[in-house]
Structure to design on (561 residues):
């Protein structure tokens, strides 16, 4: 209820009760406030303010469904109240109903166009919808309307963080904290920005400062675990995740991060079961039971399905043969770009695209649950080499296109998707890579998409680029088979080359994705892979120096005598 709301409530008792309820509400005594709102509604079921504010208490208490129900009832009485439109938008956002949330938020803005908070809320919803440029525009508008709105500045910093504009994000969080030092979310987000900038000790100090004020804040413990993991202090990281879960038992993110830490440390027996908590975070819902091992499937049709990135699919489709060995009929469901390639896989009766209708099946298993189903340990990783193959007709086409060469032919992939949470660790500026690559070898671009910041360096590099001629992963597989060596950062290309059994050098950050584990120069997943690891977080110098030295030696061995 706004202080400038001039509507008259019909009964003095109702006015007095509402004011008492609202006072309790402002103090954070949600249950006490809700009881008084309910008393008002018992006497006056159509009281707009009581319906709206009771809905708000429900939202703040985590009952978002009831919040939508109550605020919807209020809006049927009066559709012209921007606060109610805004609050139902927040409840719908919490339920993941983003399009509806955006529609109500837009109504709220139309009713109060100069509301900084309205534009800020709109930016948050657009961020959840992954519409980042629009989200930033809304938050820019919020800050322009009220430069002292610390919450809008904090929200804007989060979008900048998602966009990889780390220094700008950090400056935004600093500004929000200068305006409102007690805004704990801004301190936590500042820690995230510092971590992404590889200023890990500062990030840890920032998060510890939050915990000194709010020791029961589960998110801070989880963030602390993530920073400790980046510092390679895995036991401490796992303890921090455990504390987060102790404070918030349904904290799927902390459980998932703990699973990643365990897997990174090679503790598969503990890691695989906990890794199943990712199901809570939005896995494909299927009408048939999941198979996670331990059950007879002879004669049954088992659907194995992708769930994450292309690289994950390429890495874990190898398990199809093990399922087939159990006398099951195996159907593999994968992203459309991989259908042709994985059709070469042994042990698969049919391959379908994720865009196709679901086939008939009896049981299903996500690809990344197969290690749990087969109780995979480090010494039992199925690592046939190769387990995928390129098509002979595609190799013939690309062999003619590449032409003859007597020099070493090297395939390159230097950048991954920045939209992922670890994208900052999976990209090398092409100009930096080119400065280190020795002359002599013939270099071939294996990645289809090139970042705008790399385009000029690529155009002047002499690297052979085929752009739209590469139609799908079958073409890329053929190119991998026609080069002598693949050098790739941690992208799907590294997994493709490994699955094809090609000599592959993988360039890794100091704390890489869990599947590459720590310190070892080889991979138990890919027998032909050699791993090059950063010695300093965020710095590729030592990696590229070692690659250049070994590549020079290899090129010399290849040079005709």
């Amino acid at each position: 209820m706004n202080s400038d709301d001039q509507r008259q409530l019909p009964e003095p008792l109702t006015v007095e009760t509402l004011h008492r309820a609202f006072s309790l509400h402002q103090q954070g005594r949600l249950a006490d406030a809700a009881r008084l709102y309910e008393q008002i509604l018992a006497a006056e079921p159509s009281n707009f303010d009581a319906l709206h504010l009771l809905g708000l208490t429900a939202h703040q208490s985590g009952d978002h469904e009831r919040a939508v129900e109550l605020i919807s009832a209020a809006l049927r009485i009066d559709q012209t109240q921007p606060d109610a439109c805004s609050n139902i938008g927040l409840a719908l956002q919490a339920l993941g109903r983003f399009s509806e949330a955006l529609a109500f938020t837009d109504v709220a803005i139309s009713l109060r166009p100069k509301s900084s908070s309205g534009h800020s809320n709109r930016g948050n919803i657009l961020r959840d919808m992954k519409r980042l440029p629009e989200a930033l525009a809304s938050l820019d508008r919020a800050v322009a309307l009220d430069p002292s709105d610390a919450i809008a500045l904090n929200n804007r910093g989060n979008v900048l963080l998602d966009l990889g504009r780390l220094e700008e994000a950090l400056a935004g969080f600093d500004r929000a904290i200068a305006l409102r030092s007690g805004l704990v979310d801004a301190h936590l987000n500042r820690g995230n920005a510092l971590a992404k900038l590889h200023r890990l000790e500062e990030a840890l100090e920032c998060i510890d400062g939050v915990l000194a004020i709010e020791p029961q804040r589960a998110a801070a413990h989880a963030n602390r675990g993530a920073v400790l993991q980046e510092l390679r202090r895995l036991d401490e990281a796992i303890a921090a995740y455990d504390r987060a879960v102790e404070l918030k038992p349904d904290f799927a993110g902390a459980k998932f991060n703990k699973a990643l830490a365990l897997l990174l440390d090679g503790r598969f027996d503990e890691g695989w079961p906990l890794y199943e908590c990712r199901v809570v975070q939005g896995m494909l819902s299927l009408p048939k039971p999941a198979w996670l091992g331990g059950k007879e499937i002879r004669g049954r049709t088992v659907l194995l399905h992708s769930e994450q990135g292309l690289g994950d699919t390429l890495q874990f489709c190898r398990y199809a043969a093990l399922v087939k060995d159990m006398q099951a009929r195996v159907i593999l469901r994968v992203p459309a770009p991989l259908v042709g390639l994985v059709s070469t896989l042994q042990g698969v009766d049919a391959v379908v695209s994720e865009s196709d209708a679901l086939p008939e099946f009896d049981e299903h298993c996500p690809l990344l649950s197969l290690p749990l189903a087969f109780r995979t340990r480090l010494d039992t990783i199925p690592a046939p080499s190769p387990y995928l193959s390129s098509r002979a007709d595609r190799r013939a086409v690309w062999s003619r296109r590449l032409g003859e060469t007597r020099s070493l032919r090297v395939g390159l992939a230097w950048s991954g998707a920045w939209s992922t949470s670890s994208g900052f660790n999976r990209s090398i500026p092409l100009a930096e890579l080119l400065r280190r690559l020795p002359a002599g070898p013939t270099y071939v671009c294996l990645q289809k998409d090139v970042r705008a910041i790399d385009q000029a360096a690529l155009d002047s590099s002499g690297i052979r680029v085929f752009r739209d001629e590469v139609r799908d992963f079958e073409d890329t597989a053929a190119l991998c088979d026609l080069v002598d060596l693949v050098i790739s950062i941690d992208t799907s290309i590294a997994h493709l080359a490994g699955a094809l059994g090609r000599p592959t050098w993988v360039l890794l950050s100091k704390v890489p994705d869990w599947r590459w584990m720590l310190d070892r120069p080889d991979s138990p997943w890919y027998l032909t892979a050699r791993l090059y690891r950063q010695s300093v977080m965020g710095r590729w110098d030592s990696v590229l120096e070692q690659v250049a030295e070994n590549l020079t030696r290899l090129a010399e061995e290849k040079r005709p005598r």
